[in-house]
Design brief:
Elements lengths: L6 H16 L3 H8 L17 H13 L6 H14 L5 H5 L4 E4 L15 E3 L2 E10 L6 E8 L9 E7 L5 E7 L5 E11 L1 E4 L3 H36 L1 E2 L2 E2 L4 H26 L5 H30 L9 H12 L6 H12 L1
Parallel strand pairs: 1-4, 2-4
Antiparallel strand pairs: 2-3, 3-7, 4-5, 5-8, 6-7, 9-10
Helix pairs in contact: 1-2, 1-3, 3-6, 3-7, 4-6, 6-7, 6-8, 6-9, 7-8, 8-9, 8-10
Length: 345
C-alpha cells in the first residue's frame, strides 16, 4: 500500500502549517480555509473524512504550539450530529461551536457508563471534563432513557443550549492547555437527536482516539526536533553535547520511537472504517504504543535539555504536558492493552 500523501493532502498540510504558524485566531483561520471540512465526508458536507484525512489535520495541530479543542468542539460533535441526520454546515464553516458531554464520575473509559437520565426532552445528571463547554453555542449530551437497562442500549443524544434552564457549569483550566467544565443538569430541556446512539458514539470516539494519537505524534515530532537542535547548540567542554556518544544514542532511540508511533497512527487510520472488532483491535494496539512512546520521548527530552525543559517560558514543557496527558484521553496504555488482549481472545 502507498502511504505517501496525495497532492491534495500535501497542499492541505502546507496550508495548515502556515496558518497555524501565523494566525492570531487559529480557529477562524482554519474554518476560513475549509480545514474543518477535511474531517467529514462529502455526504456530511465536507471533503474528506477518511482516517488519513483526520490524522493529517491533527498531526499538524500537534506540531503547533496552540491549544485548539478541535476534537471536542468540531470532530466528535460533527460526527454525532451526522449520525443523527443533522446538518453540520455551520460547524464546518466555523460559525457554530459545539461541545460534547459524555464522561461521568466513576465511568473511567467505559462508554456505556451513563447515569444521566432523560425523560422525554428533560435531562438530569452530571457530566465531567467537558472540554470547550464554556465557549460552546450548544452541547451534545448523552443520557439514558428513563427505565432503560444499564448497558449499551437506551443511550441517546440530546442537544442542549448553552443557556438552557437548569444547566450550570463550573469551568477550570486543564493541564494540556485550554479549559473544560463540570456540568450539572437539573430538569434541563434538550432537543432529542438520536434515541439509540451507542454505535454512533463508539465510531465517534474511535475517530477522536485516532485524532488524539495523530496530535500526540505531531507533538512528539516537534519535541524530538527541539531536542536535536538543542544537542547541536548546547556546548560543554568546548563542543556540542550532541557529539557525546551516550546522548547521540538516546536521541537515536527517540527518533526510532517517533517512527514507530507514525506507523501506529497509519495503521489505526487505515482501519478506521473497518468492522467494529477489527477497528477496535488496531486502534487499541496503536493507542497503547503511542502512550508508551510518548512518555519515553517526553521524559528523555526533558532530561537531555536539563532544567530549561521544565520552565513555563520554554515550549518543551508545554509539549511534554500535552504528550503525557494525551495518554489519559480515550483510554490509557493499560486500558488499551487489556482491551487488545480481550479482542484478540
Amino acid at each position: 500500500m502507498n502511504f505517501d500523501l496525495t497532492d491534495e493532502q500535501r497542499m492541505l498540510q502546507d496550508t495548515l502549517r502556515k496558518a497555524l504558524a501565523t494566525a492570531s485566531d487559529p480557529w477562524a483561520a482554519l474554518a476560513e480555509l475549509g480545514v474543518i471540512g477535511a474531517l467529514f465526508s462529502e455526504d456530511a458536507g465536507g471533503f474528506g473524512g477518511t482516517g488519513f484525512d483526520i490524522a493529517l489535520v491533527f498531526e499538524e495541530l500537534g506540531r503547533a504550539d496552540v491549544a485548539l479543542p478541535m476534537i471536542d468542539c468540531a470532530l466528535v460533535p460533527g460526527l454525532l450530529l451526522t449520525a443523527a441526520g443533522q446538518d453540520i454546515a455551520d460547524v464546518i464553516a466555523g460559525t457554530e461551536k459545539l461541545a460534547w458531554a459524555h464522561g461521568e464520575l466513576g465511568a473511567r473509559y467505559d462508554l456505556d457508563w451513563v447515569e444521566t437520565r432523560a425523560d422525554g426532552d428533560v435531562i438530569s445528571g452530571q457530566k465531567a471534563v467537558v472540554v470547550g463547554a464554556e465557549d460552546a453555542d450548544s452541547i451534545i449530551v448523552t443520557a439514558r432513557h428513563a427505565g432503560a437497562k444499564d448497558d449499551h442500549t437506551g443511550i441517546g443524544l440530546w442537544r442542549v443550549a448553552r443557556d438552557a434552564a437548569g444547566l450550570s457549569l463550573h469551568g477550570y483550566d486543564i493541564a494540556q492547555g485550554g479549559r473544560a467544565a463540570e456540568l450539572t443538569l437539573e430538569n434541563t430541556p434538550g432537543e432529542p437527536l438520536l434515541p439509540e446512539a451507542f454505535n454512533a458514539l463508539s465510531q465517534a470516539v474511535v475517530a477522536a482516539t485516532l485524532a488524539q494519537m495523530a496530535e500526540t505524534l505531531g507533538a512528539m515530532e516537534t519535541v524530538a526536533a527541539m531536542t536535536q537542535d538543542y544537542l547541536k547548540t548546547r556546548k560543554q567542554f568546548g563542543r556540542p553535547i550532541g557529539s557525546f556518544q551516550v546522548l547521540a544514542h538516546r536521541l537515536a532511540d527517540m527518533m526510532l520511537e517517533v517512527e514507530q508511533a507514525r506507523s501506529a497512527v497509519i495503521l489505526a487510520a487505515g482501519h478506521l472504517h473497518d468492522a467494529p472488532a477489527q477497528r477496535d483491535l488496531h486502534v487499541s494496539a496503536a493507542k497503547n504504543l503511542i502512550g508508551r512512546a510518548g512518555r519515553m520521548i517526553a521524559e528523555e527530552a526533558i532530561q537531555m535539555h536539563g532544567g530549561i525543559g521544565m520552565t513555563e517560558e520554554y515550549a518543551l514543557g508545554r509539549f511534554a504536558k500535552r504528550i503525557i496527558m494525551a495518554d489519559h484521553r480515550f483510554g490509557d496504555t493499560d486500558h488499551h492493552l487489556e482491551r487488545f488482549i480481550a479482542l484478540r481472545a
